[in-house]
């Protein structure tokens, strides 16, 4: 089980459905180290009777959130979970949740602030707030794709994927040169990735857009690399990169907490009749 996040508190709060909460706890129990559950494991993990564990797993499998293997009697994540993931990705919920945090960062730094997630050989901007000095583009930043090899927004993510994945992505592949500062040599790129991993941030100037400086940090969820949070603007606006680094890291941590922990909501008391 993960040690933090939505599945940390296993007690069902008063006023909520215990049966539904139990099913969700099982789903939240999946992580990179646990790809499948068995009835006995579920019962032991949560302190339930085996009959309860069996019914919870069977119900999730009935609705497609789990897939059972009749030969091993174990369960893995099912296609219904993928369907919800796609809906979440297209719903704009992520943008709504993080934009207030990006707005605070933008106002503090006087630069544009954005959150980007991987999209094949690019990073896709999913949320952005223009800086008070003006927008970086004459069109909305949300939806824009940033090439994996150019600019801090991308490098702050791709520096933290596995070595094998970086070899697959960056070796033997032609890379476009967008400005005279764009790095297109794989060995030089790898040196920059190593530096980014050591300092846990990336700062570039003019690699994708001439005259635009970008400061970015990795965004991690439960310790896994998820995307990047970055500031972009004219070099004179960002100034010394480390002057905004603390605020940028703080914003990334706030976003992580917002995306991995329950939103605290008060449950209204029942009205007296």
Q: Could you characterize the architecture of this molecule?
A:
Helix 1 crosses helix 3 and helix 5 runs antiparallel to helix 10 (245-260). Helix content is 41%, strand content 20%. A hairpin with a 4-residue loop joins strand 2 (66-69) and strand 3 (74-77). The two termini are 43 Å apart. The protein has helices at residues 18-28, 39-46, 50-62, 79-91, 93-109, 152-158, 163-170, 186-199, 235-238, 245-260; strands at residues 37-38, 66-69, 74-77, 112-119, 122-129, 145-147, 202-205, 212-221, 224-234. The radius of gyration is 22 Å and the shape is elongated. It has 273 residues and is α+β, with helices and mostly antiparallel strands. It has a six-stranded antiparallel beta sheet with strand order 6-5-4-9-8-7, with helices on both faces. Strands 1-3-2 form a three-stranded antiparallel beta sheet. The chain folds into two domains: 18-80, Winged helix-like DNA-binding domain superfamily/Winged helix DNA-binding domain (Arc Repressor Mutant, subunit A), CATH 1.10.10; 92-260, Beta-Lactamase (2-Layer Sandwich), CATH 3.30.450. It has ten helices and nine strands.
């Amino acid at each position: 089980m993960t040690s933090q996040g939505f599945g940390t508190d296993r007690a069902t709060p008063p006023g909520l459905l215990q049966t539904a909460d139990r099913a969700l706890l099982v789903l939240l129990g999946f992580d990179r180290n646990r790809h499948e559950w068995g009835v006995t494991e579920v019962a032991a993990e949560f302190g339930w009777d085996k009959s309860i564990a069996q019914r919870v797993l069977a119900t999730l499998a009935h609705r497609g959130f789990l897939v059972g293997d009749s030969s091993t009697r174990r369960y893995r994540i099912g296609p219904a979970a993928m369907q919800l993931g796609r809906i979440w990705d297209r719903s704009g919920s992520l943008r709504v949740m993080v934009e207030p945090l990006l707005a605070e960062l933008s106002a503090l730094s006087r630069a544009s602030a954005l959150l980007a997630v991987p999209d094949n050989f690019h990073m896709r901007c999913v949320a952005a707030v223009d800086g008070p000095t003006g927008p970086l583009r004459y069109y909305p930043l949300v939806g824009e794709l940033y090439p994996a090899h150019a600019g801090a927004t991308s490098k702050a993510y791709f520096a933290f994927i596995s070595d094998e994945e970086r070899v697959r992505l960056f070796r033997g592949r032609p890379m476009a040169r967008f400005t005279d500062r764009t790095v297109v040599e794989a060995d030089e790129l790898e040196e920059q990735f190593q530096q980014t991993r050591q300092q846990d941030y990336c700062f570039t100037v003019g690699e994708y857009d001439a005259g635009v400086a970008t400061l970015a940090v990795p965004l991690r969820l439960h310790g896994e690399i998820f995307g990047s949070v970055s500031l972009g603007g004219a070099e004179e606006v960002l100034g010394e990169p480390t002057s905004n680094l603390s605020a940028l890291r703080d914003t990334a941590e706030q976003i992580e907490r917002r995306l991995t922990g329950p939103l605290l909501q008060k449950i209204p008391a029942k009205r007296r009749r």
